[in-house]
Each structure stands twice: as structure tokens, then as C-alpha cells.
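As a representative case, the lines below give one protein's residues and C-alpha cells.
***
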Amino acid sequence: MLLCGGDVLTERQLHRLNEHKYRSAGNTLLDPVMQKFWNWFTKRLPLWLAPNLMTLVGLCVNALTTVVLILYSPDGKQPIPGWALIFFAIGLFIYQTLDATDGKQARRTGTSSPLGELFDHGCDSISTVLASIATCLTFQLGYYPGWMFYQCIAASFLFYLAHWQTYVSATLKFGRFDVTEVQFSIMFFNILTACTSQDFWASTVPGLNMELKILPAIAIAIAHAIVAFNNFSVILAGGVGKNGSTVAGTSVLSPCIPIAIVIVPAFIIYQKSSPHLFEEHPCLYLITFGLIIAKVTNRLVVAHMTKSEMDYLDTVLIGPAMLFLNQYFNNFLPEYFVLWLALIYTLADLIHYAVVICRQISSYLHINVLTIAPNSPSWNAQKSDKHNKGSLNGRDKKYNLRQGRHQ
């Protein structure tokens, strides 16, 4: 929790973070197929390219392509040109590729660190918000505000839930149909819609008396329920800590409070708004609360990596508090204006948190965030290791020559 300055982590938390080891389990349907492409792509990356920079560039591309969709359809009801839908699909593929290869690049350059894992999860939490909103715009779910609210909030909640079970079990577990498959599904729907039109999803399903766009929404809701059930099964089975607690020795149910403090007000404000704030400005509303959930999720990731208790309250909650109090005082200020204030504050708070924690961790680990230092311990360790092994294949020779130029 920060208002103006100060460190996020204590010395003890930094020590635990340094000892943290990433653990994952499970393999998705498409990952084995995509690994060949990702490995091919990684080998063609320059050795000076920092893994965190790759992830950040991918997120910026993802954000840019999403903003284009929002500009065309801020209320989720307006038509979007086919090129913009394809543009988003390409942007999501770029993000997926860079996100999947940043870890490979880190191992290739000898710059793997806990900061890289945290940076990766942080960008993923924001990308989840962007992708879910973009999908709703593709289907024009603005005509069904309840469905749009559910789809976006549920997507962010499931990302939080995945790290909740990691906080309990110490292992990030992947299902057969997971992130990679979801991303390709979104790309497919965008390309299909671009090749047909958004009117295709507005056609009525014979015998069901509903628009075609509701069927994917129902299918996604069922998938959400299955994923949630699997994660809660892991959580309720008990954790790796003492007496079945979390990695921090806290109750396995404790992470439900921080997320509930965000989602419950989001729903209440949506329902109680007399000028129908969400219905009129769904994208602005979902970005605001999506970023709030992203901040809370990042704090959960930090709690897991540092094996520490997660605080229930956070400064980012000032954003929804603005909206809640404004409604309590009968909209003393226009809700649209307060929503913009909440978004600006939330974005500033999230960026401030990210910058402070990245600086603190990079300083403690003596590494750079977005660049690879020529004289960094990881760089020198890799150089020494390659020299001792005497394994100078073509790529290694080029790598060592490049080191010489830097030094």
C-alpha cells in the first residue's frame, strides 16, 4: 500500500523473493505444437534484447489494438470495421508470442530472475482485461450489458483465482484448455467476424429465439465454471503450509476478501447508477475495475513469491470509493466525470506501484529491468559457464564476440 512513496517490500520479503523458484504443472493442448514456433522465434532474437522489454512491447501492442476497437465502439454497440478486428487479432498474436518467449530469452541470456516472473504475470493481468473487453466488442455485447459485465469481470477473477491456488499450492497449474487456447479462440472469432460481419452474430438461432452471439457467451460461462471448480478444488484441498495453510501460513480462504472488496462494489455501483453509467460507458467502466483487479492480483503474486500475508486494503480502492460515495450523496458530481477520475487515479496508482516495486527488486538483485547490463552478474556468469564448457558452436561464438564488443 502506497500513497506517495516508500518501499513496497521489507528486507525479509526481498530475501524470500530472491529464494523463490517458479513451479508449474500441466500442459495445454496447443503448447506442445506452439513450442516449435516459439523456440524458432527465440533463436532469432538478438542477445541484447531484455525479456522484460519484450513483454512490455507486447503489452503495448495489445493495448494499442484494443484502444482502436474501443474508439470505434465505446458502448459495445457500434460496428467495427473488419481491418480493426484483424488488427487486434494480429496484436494479440504478437503479445502471445512475446509473452511465451520472454522466459526462453531470459534463460538464453542468463537473465532469469524473480523480477521477470513478476513482470510477466503483471503484464498478463492487464492483457486479460484488454482481451476480454475486445472480445465483448467483437460480439457487440453492449446490447447485453449484464453479459458484458459478467464476461469481463469473470475473466479477471479467474486470473486472480489461478494465482490464488498458486498461493495455496505453491504451483501454477495449467489445464488442457488454458491461456494459449483462449487467445487463439479470440483471434479466430475476430478473424471470422472480420470475414463475415458483426451482423452475423445478431442473427437469430432457429428454435431458441436468441441471437447467435449469446451461444459463445454461454459457452464461455460454462468454461468459466469448470475452471473455477478446478481451482477451488485445489484451494479447498489445503495448502502446502503448516496445517494445510498457504505458503505464507495464512488461511487458504484469506485471498477471497481482497477480491470481494473490488467485485462487490463494482456490481453495486453498476446496479445502483441512476444515469446507467455502465450501460452508457461499459469500456471505461470495465477498464477501471479491470485495472483495480489487476493491481490486487499483482499484490497476490507478490505475496506468493515472498511467502507473506496479503493485506486486505489497498490504495487502489480509492477509485471505486469515489464512485460509491458519489452515489451515496445522490451524484453530487456527474458520474461520468467521477468515473474518469477513478480511472486516472487507478492507472496512476498501478503504474506507481509497478515502478516502485520493480526498482526495489532490481536494486536488491543488482539487475536491470528493461535492459541487459553488459557487466551484470548473470551476463558474466553465462560467459564464464560457456568458457568453462568450451562449447563454442556458431551461436555461442557470436554471443561471446558480442560480449567482447560490449566490454
Observations:
- Residues 304 and 345 are 26 Å apart (CA to CA).
- Strands lie at 24-25, 172-173, 204-205, 210-211.
